[in-house]
TrEMBL record:
Keyword Transmembrane in annotation: yes
Highest classification ranks of the organism: Bacteria, Bacillati, Actinomycetota, Actinomycetes, Pseudonocardiales
Descriptive protein name: Cytochrome c oxidase subunit 2
Gene name in the database record: coxB
GO biological process: ATP synthesis coupled electron transport
Membrane topology: Multi-pass membrane protein
Biological source species: Saccharopolyspora thermophila
Alphabetized Pfam families for the sequence: COX2, COX2_TM
Cited NCBIfam families: CoxB
Cofactor requirements of the protein: Cu cation
Catalysed reactions, as listed in the record: 4 Fe(II)-[cytochrome c] + O2 + 8 H(+)(in) = 4 Fe(III)-[cytochrome c] + 2 H2O + 4 H(+)(out)
Record-annotated Cytochrome oxidase subunit II copper A binding domain positions: 128-257
Stretches of the chain forming a coiled coil according to its record: none
Cellular localisation: Cell membrane; Membrane
EC identifiers of the protein: 7.1.1.9
Amino acid sequence: MGLKEGTRVPRLVKVTGLIGLVGVAATGCTTDEVLRFGWPQGVTPQAESMRQLWTWSVIAALAVGVIVWGLIFWTVAFHRKKTDELPRQFQYNLPLELIYTAIPFVLVVVLFYFTAVNQNYVLAKPAKPDETVNVVSFQWNWEFNYPEHRTPDGQPVRTVGSSSEIPLLVLPTGRRIEYHVSSTDVIHSFFVPEFHFKRDTFPHPEKNNQDNVFQNTIDREGAFVGRCAELCGTYHAMMNFEVRALSPDKFDRYMQLRTQINPQTGQPYTAAEALREMNCGELCTPYAVTGVPFNTDRTGGAPSGQSGTK
């Protein structure tokens, strides 16, 4: 009996290892994708910080799980009822009770520490950001305005989404950006998956004692889909926008155009017109590339500025 049980364990280990290896290989994931555990690839230092916290938290949870599963399988395999003799009892084993009380406490303290450190880093708001953008949500679209950049009539550069056009939030890479988020009607949520971050937008956040300001820095150029992540009414699922990250020189050229009059229309350049005028390849595609507008009259709410300004 002892020999059979002795050979059974290595065989079980081999089978379990083989199943695990086949399971990992069958996913077709790269090493980087496995370490991200399903998270999208971040484009900000803050996103990478959160990804690392997530990865190590999952690894710690898996390690605890393996130990617990191992103890369960060990008990099932080697402590099956063989006689009516009562097995050795441990309910009053003080050292053992201290161990299984101390280990979870240490795990919680360590997890709390790293969570607090990452949270402080992600929510940090150093003074004098390089760019500021106001994000205004409304049923069921978005308005983005840049208070530091003014059109010839003295109004801030503004982009407002419509039923026929997904709004573009054009931002520079390599610069610290400060976002001020708010809503004109109900609670929405500003969410960009590649930021690994979302922030609810409230009407009158100053009256609701809500922190509606955060900052980040975008590492690379690209187009990244943005969504409303708070159920807000009939067309919530269609309330999308697109972050268009441009290098600093392209962003400066974009803003230069947005603050000028388009000679063909006699009005300040819209986002689409400015990007078309820049003619810098895929990054300057004048319309969203991460989604298509939902053709409906979404007039449940209104932006904070002039309706219809693009």
